[in-house]
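User: quick one, fold this
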Amino acid sequence: MPHIASSKAAAAPVRFRSSLLACAIHCMLAGAAGLAIGSGAALAAEPVADATAREYAIAPGSLSGALAQFAAASGVRVVFDAQVLAGRQSPGLQGRFGAREGLARLLAGTGYEAAALNDGRYAVRPVATAGGASEAGAEAAATLPAVTVTATQSATGTAAEGYREDRVSSVGPWQGRDLQDTPYSITVFSEEFIENLQASSADQVYRVNPTLQQTRSQYENNQPTINLRGFTLWGSYRDGVRDDQYGHGTTMEDTERIEVLNGLSGFIYGPSNVGGLVNYVTKRSTDERLNSVTVSSLGNKAWYLHGDFGGKFDADGRFGYRANVAKQGGDTSIRGQRIERDMYSLVLDAKPRNDLYLQVSAMNMDYDIHGAQARIAATAATRPSVNALRNDISYGPAWTYRHYNTDRYTAHAKWDVNQAVSLRATYLYSTGVRDSEGAPITNTMTSPTTYNQTLSYFYAPGVDSTLSYVYDKSGAVYGDFKFDTGAVGHKVTLGYQYTNNRQDRWTNSASAIALGSSTIDDPQYFDKPEVAPIDRGAKNINWYGGVRRSLVLGDDITFNDRWSALVGVSHVTLSSKTYDKSALTPALSLLFKPIPDLTTYVSYMESLETGGTAADEYQGVAVVNAGQVFAPLTSKQIEIGAKYSWNGMLLSGALFQIDKGLQYYDLRDPTRPVYVQDGRQVHKGVEFTAIGKLTRDLSLMGGFTLLDAKVKQQKQNPLLEGKRPTQVANKMFKARAEYAVPAVPGLSLSASLNAMGANYADSMNTDRLSGYVIYDLGLRYQMKVGQKPMTIRMDVFNVTDKHYWANSSALGAPRTVVLSANYKF
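Assistant:
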């Protein structure tokens, strides 16, 4: 089926496993799915107002991407097949045009034209010659795929485009620029790429990103943790606003795109992690009816079901829905570990008029992990050989569990008041409840082969086992104003960003319990201990939390076709129980395009970030100053980069330096770790990424990062001067190639490589974690069943069953075979 680009794109403790929100979403999903399956409503007959001229600023580039941008800006539906148009370039479109003339100019010289259909859409077709055929037409006929998939809102990022995305959602205050002309290092993973990675969690996406080091997998603690430019990140963003939940609320099923921004983001998204952030973009309703069901085996006895349903409620296509439901269960590839997950989400959107878009969404996820992987606490002297450990057992009892329940609500609005003024706003509210029985388990190594096992957070029957209650409120509102001063164009944006994170905990918690000693060769699995009830005391409201406020002012300046600049400043205020600090931070970028396909830039940014908080424990040992919140820090970054569109690929490179305050655990006395804030850490590096079509049948996603990270200006412990921060690899290289087999239509083969450099588990750089190389293989076969598309996917992760340290306390996942079948009807 063709793609349609459109502006509509867009006793025992009581544990509540299904919240009121989950029940409500479940009922709405049933109704939505019934409507989707039973309705055969035609696409909206939307009149084409060709007489209405609009301003366009579409840069030369991918033809599919240019058509998608045109549809979004004009409100006109454009029907085309992205696979046929793959590799073709558009001259772009600059100026004020009606729909018919604008499309004609956009398609000039491509061998294609736009034909108006009776229902108000435009169809892109080969230009007919006097003989009734054309070179483009002959090529299109020869390259039409055997199987096509139901169109979604994305016209870029498809397999036919090599998963190259030309779009990026509004980058905070900045909007309207495509990915090539955005002066930041950003990697975008499209919906189709996520689907073909079989990404039921973020792990599969993170393992192919060449600028990202994953330090904790989602299966360890439902809290995927990564390093960006050498700085740890565990929170995430949803639709451009903070969705913290300490990383526990990430969901893939309702995600249309994942955007990974490397480097400082204070002006763009408000105070955040210095190394960058991950933004999950929520799926929107589809123009055509979508019913998609996926059944998967996740390895061993683990199974997974996912349903994705979308469409419009009305014949005019003004009101739509997107509903996702997922369920996971069974024993994983780690013996003794079982994950149970239920997820429901519903998105409702509306375009009551051509200049107004509204969207609301709700999500509930319930996540249980039984037999969570035990943490290994070791020093350079006691750390076991990675090959002496088994990577398919948890080294902890199967009766432990961790439970998380998360609710998330969002609202979004965008109003194009006129050609010069637009208003946009996003709001998010999420809640989370975490409870545990005996997790985490810590195995403290007493030698390279023996350990003592300790149990955390274990309560007697009848005692509330809740660890924390988390509440997040985030929002952003922007006004964009276009005007010219002589020959110079401006788009001034005034905005306000707000985040309020709060965590409540009980005053008293259970003490750690020593279970016994064991060996790595013959691990002992201890029974549940018997403990006396404790009084957990009063609930400590706002045990940890803070408020972040930013007032931003920016100007997107266009001097001419080659030179442009982004100039901004933000007034940031960070507040908590222990501090209230404000700062004025600048953001400056200068861009130069020597040729249309090449963008070069230099950027400078400062950011005020929240200070760290001492954790309850570090490497299985209680932290002396647990819960202490440190003052905010100011960081600085300079970045020089270039992005080049070449032969269907986007090549991106950046040189950067980040200077920020240092926070770390002082382990001079390993039995009494103390979290401190002292000195600076300076990270210098180079990044390179490539994504797109290398040849007609071969797609490539890959790149590398080289990082020089060092501790500077150390006063508390001068011996740390010049050391590398913990768990920061100095180099990484990742590549994923996908080959569409010409001799077998519908068959694609893939291979991935993930090479990670060595890093250190301790601040003194004595406990070295060796680097590793792991390989993945996969295949995808598309066919028709009952005239409907079905896709079979199989991936083998860690083909050689490599044993490696994923972080200082856990091994990476063993070889795992994932198999799925997807049917769209």
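User: anything notable?
Assistant: Residues 801 and 814 are 5 Å apart (CA to CA).
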